Hints:
Distance between the termini: 51 Å
CATH architecture of the largest domain: 3-Layer(aba) Sandwich
CATH superfamily of the largest domain: Type I PLP-dependent aspartate aminotransferase-like (Major domain)
Shape: globular
Number of strands: 17
Number of helices: 15
CATH class of the largest domain: Alpha Beta
Amino acid sequence: MADKMHVTRATFDDVMVPNYNPAKMVPVKGEGSRVWDQDGREYVDFAGGIAVNCLGHCHPAMVNALTEQGNKLWHLSNVFTNEPALRLASKLTASTFADRVYFANSGAEANEAALKLARRWALEQHGEDKQQIIAFTKGFHGRTFFTVTVGGQPAYSDGFGPKPGAIEHIPYNDLAALEKLMSDKTCAVMMEPLQGEGGVIEADKAFLQGVRDLCDKHNVLLIFDEVQTGFGRTGSLYCYQQYGVVPDILATAKSLGGGFPIGAMLTTKAIAEHLKPGTHGSTYGGNPLACAVAEAVFDVVNSDDVLNGVKAREQLFKQHLQRINDKYQVFDEVRGKGLLLGAALNSDYEGRARDFLNAAAEEGVMVLVAGPNVVRFTPSLIIPEADIDAGMERFEKAVAKVVG
């Protein structure tokens, strides 16, 4: 067996496309909510791979599922189905509003499928005039050209030529704006029940219910992008279950695989009928490896112990952040649900979220940002309380450093 070549952060600049600017350190090992870099330095992980590593790193249930399936069957074309995909789909439909599941490899692909399905449904049910898609400013739905255009952040979609048409954006939580724009020509409304990338912005319950009612009135499909909010992240299996507002189509990914790439689109039997054989597909979507891992994650996450534990950990995070803020006066508010939390910076520290992220890394704790003004926390759903305490101790040192 050939020796592995030695690589460093400098190798990135020599061989990788420069669309990312990764940290100086290179992580090489993870266990639970701790990560170690090439120099053996240890970090507490409050980032979770951007709300992906819902059971932390190398959870035994995931390692066992991957190893077992890896010794059985890796890949088949979708000319065949497979047992892990059928088991996972059965568990997802049994635990949600949905009757049918389509598997993909990522959140963007799940959202792409949702949008294509909505357009196809509208065309076949109502004709060519019903094609408008309404979404929200600061929304984020992926990086394919369709999903990035529906996402309400022009910085991500500008500069690539003509965009897909019949897509309009309005402010989040603005029901009057939606009512004014929506008509019988609207095909779908796409939204996150809690905006992640846009700054961890919660929806008002009355707003979500109002969106649902307007969709019903105009015969419009409601698509919930639960890529970041889903699979236990907010303290229920899916965030919509906490609001009691049921979508027609739901996209899920990130935590679904716990770190293994997988996405899924969930919908009802009647709507699913419009993706007939040949209308959409994915080479790797629903592969046995991904589905076996996701099933193992599902079995751990979809339990009262874990979901109630998320809510308890939310309170612990908020208490720590409140204590730090009482001392240093840097945050306006802490918002979000469960373990999708955002600490919004006050006007004295406006635009400096990345300074806090960088200082945190220097102190040995990994955090995220959600735009220039929000420090975001999306740790493992089962992060031990001792790791929360230790990570917050390090984060406080980082805050002190930025405050100077």
